[in-house]
Write a structure and sequence with these properties.
By secondary structure, this protein is an alpha+beta fold. The protein has 5 helices and 8 strands; from the N terminus they run ααββαββββααββ. The N terminus is likely disordered.
């Protein structure tokens, strides 16, 4: 892997900017996530036309679902391949029905689901020593193997930087030391908000 340029490193290392998405935009996206799941259960379509230009910008995003406080699904897109509004709808639907770790969400569960959204910055190359717990998410790639962990994961598990690097390698199906042995390491930041704290 080539060392990151000073520009990419400095962008990732600088202090976090204020929230990009307003409380109103956060509420719209969270409502959309719930509507997308309900529409899939009812076999109906919803409009995926963004209500604002800002929400129509391409961004990567993940939707994480919780039921009774326990993880119920997590699916998303690392790279900005579609407008954010559509990406959130598709991620929420994917988390509800396509996460292979869980059975599909049921009609009984759907009204009680809590949604957390993570809106990602574009991944950029980073050196292992530059990784900051609580700020950076990680993407590790080697050959056809790729693994990603969101910024909140090491915080929730109490991991240090080395453990975070190792666990991301394991998520990719690689040896835990792959970050030291030729794997490509990229980092991203995320604006994270959910049903209980969408206005934070």
């Amino acid at each position: 892997m080539c060392p990151p340029s000073e520009d990419s490193s400095s962008r990732l290392a600088r202090p976090a900017s204020p929230n990009e998405y307003s409380p109103e935009e956060r509420m719209l996206l969270l409502q959309l996530a719930h509507q997308s799941i309900a529409a899939a259960l009812e076999q109906r379509e919803i409009s995926l036309v963004s209500p604002t230009l800002h929400l129509s910008e391409p961004r990567g995003a993940f939707a994480t679902l919780y039921y009774n406080g326990a993880l119920r699904g997590c699916v998303g897109y690392v790279f900005p391949v579609a407008p954010l509004y559509r990406t959130v709808a598709e991620s929420a639907r994917g988390a509800a029905f396509d996460d292979s770790r869980f059975p599909p969400v049921t009609r009984i569960e759907a009204p009680e689901l809590e949604v957390s959204l993570s809106i990602l910055s574009p991944p950029e190359p980073i050196q292992p020593a530059e990784v900051e717990i609580g700020r950076h998410g990680l993407l590790v790639s080697l050959g056809v193997c790729r693994g990603l962990l969101l910024p909140q994961v090491p915080v929730e598990h109490g991991w240090d930087r080395i453990t975070f690097l190792e666990q991301t390698c394991k998520k990719a199906g690689l040896p835990s030391s792959a970050w030291q042995a030729g794997a490509e390491l990229q980092a991203f930041t995320a604006e994270v908000f959910g049903d209980r704290r969408w206005s934070s």
